[in-house]
User: Fold Fe-S cluster assembly ATPase SufC from Sphingomonas natans.
Amino acid sequence: MLKIENLHAEIDGKQILKGLSLAVNAGEIHAIMGPNGAGKSTLGYVLAGKPGYEVTDGTLNFLNFDLRDMAPHARAAAGLFLGFQYPVEIPGVSNLQFLREALNAQRKGRGEPPLSGAEFLKIARAQAAALGLDPEMLKRPVNVGFSGGEKKRAEMVQMGIIDPKFAILDETDSGLDIDALRAVGAGINTIMRKPDRAVLLITHYQRLLDYVRPDFVHVLADGRIVRSGGPELALELEREGYKDIAA
Ligand code: ADP
Ligand code: MG
Ligand code: MG
Assistant:
């Protein structure tokens, strides 16, 4: 589904990704772990096509697309979803407006007609209820005054509505209490644990992986994947840290 080979990428002239290779098949969940500053968020931004991130070498294939040729909105329409490490606040735009615009832009990209307000509201309320987010919160401006847990639940609602083929979730577990962690983990499993979907789960901590069991765990250090294994690798990292691996 996703094939990255020898990816080199820079921001503001600084080389961050230095020959990263990774292949993800449909139906798989891959966890990416690694020390601070290794380039994990950069990988997410490069995949999503965030302006300012320049790919200087390597290939980026998603389904039958060459991502390097595609604008961010075209990548999203092709089924790529990025959940942010730091969700942005959008004063003056309600969650409902934002989500409806996002979904209808996706549908337009796929040549499908927009949903009516009533159709959309039904989907949005069902997703919020499934994620344990009070549907009333959907009327409030995007993320403004939301707690950390509410932001992440709202992001999962967004993912459920967009229904992407491939999700890159960047530290979705940071700052969550146990209930929110469980809700977010269940959300990821419900929405994305399907034979035709895949997930790249960027995380610092093993605990999210108790809820979302990865098929593969990779260590990203200094811009490359330096080690790969199964779920047991996350447990080993939790015990031993990165010092021997990144060296
Ligand atoms: P991680 O998510 O693994 O903690 P990041 O991908 O966020 O790491 O960052 C990787 C490196 O890129 C860090 O050393 C960071 O300081 C650097 N970096 C990020 N943005 C910029 C920028 N705009 N200019 C220069 N360096 C940057
Ligand atoms: Mg970090
Ligand atoms: Mg990061």
Observations:
- The chain is about 40% helix and 30% strand.
- The first strand starts at residue 2 and ends at 11.
